[in-house]
Design brief:
- With 211 residues, this protein is of the alpha/beta class.
- It has a single domain, classed as Dihydrofolate Reductase, subunit A (3-Layer(aba) Sandwich), CATH 3.40.430.10.
- Helices cover 31% and strands 27% of the residues.
- The strands form two sheets. It has an eight-stranded mixed beta sheet, with helices on both faces.
- β9 and β10 form a beta hairpin.
- The two termini are 19 Å apart.
- The mean pLDDT is 93.
């Protein structure tokens, strides 16, 4: 059975966006970029919520064509190859977007690689995808969807990049999906990753099924 791996970055005080929904307040450094590319290389399907999907498709196709359009590359040309490959892989990979509002008309330029699944069908669709042969299923961001899939017991690993910053407010990293206390599976720390020159840390948790 394929794994569903969910990845997120959050501040030390537990926010995935700063005040005013400022995502760029998080320290998305070379280590963060390289780790995301590592996860993309291990996957063949992205599972995304509508907000994250829309943001990715507005950004990465242009970076795939010319990585200099990325602010990170403009600030540090040394990450150009990582950003170019990330954009190319985001363009090519199969994408499942869970949304009740998006239509095929909203998917360009990723129409040929995108399948829209309605919220009511998400658990069944993801469970069915996990039974197919292939590489990892990967959730990037998509806070509400990720929490819902966690509560449904469909996430196998949770990868949290803890950024070396304190935001003091913003969007909490968790609590965006359905289910109350006790609905999320237990977590077991499986790995801790660091990289020279970065103050960020990756915590890798495996979910533990109840019963």
């Amino acid at each position: 059975m394929r794994r569903l791996v969910a990845c997120t970055i959050m501040s030390l005080d537990g926010y995935v966006e700063g005040p005013g929904r400022n995502l760029m307040a998080l320290p998305m450094d070379r280590f963060f970029d390289a780790y995301n590319l590592e996860r993309l290389r291990a996957a063949d399907t992205l599972v995304l919520g509508a907000t994250t999907y829309t943001a990715l498709k507005a950004f990465w196709p242009g970076v795939a064509r010319d990585p200099r359009t990325s602010p990170a590359v403009a600030a540090d040309p040394g990450v150009a190859d990582v950003h170019r490959e990330t954009g190319q892989r985001d363009d090519a990979i199969d994408k499942v977007v869970v949304s009740d509002s998006l239509t095929p008309a909203d998917t360009a330029p990723w129409t040929d690689t995108t399948t829209i699944v309605r919220r009511a069908d998400a658990h069944r669709a993801v469970a069915e995808l996990k039974t197919r042969p292939g590489a990892d299923l990967l959730v990037f961001g998509s806070r509400t969807l990720r929490d819902d899939l966690l509560a449904a017991g469909l996430v196998d690993e949770l990868h949290v990049v803890v950024g070396a910053t304190v935001l003091g407010g913003g969007t909490p990293a968790f609590g965006g999906g359905g289910g109350g206390p006790g609905s999320v599976p237990s977590l077991r720390l499986a790995d801790v990753r660091r990289s020279a020159g970065s103050d960020n840390v990756v915590l890798v948790y495996q979910t533990v099924r109840r019963g």
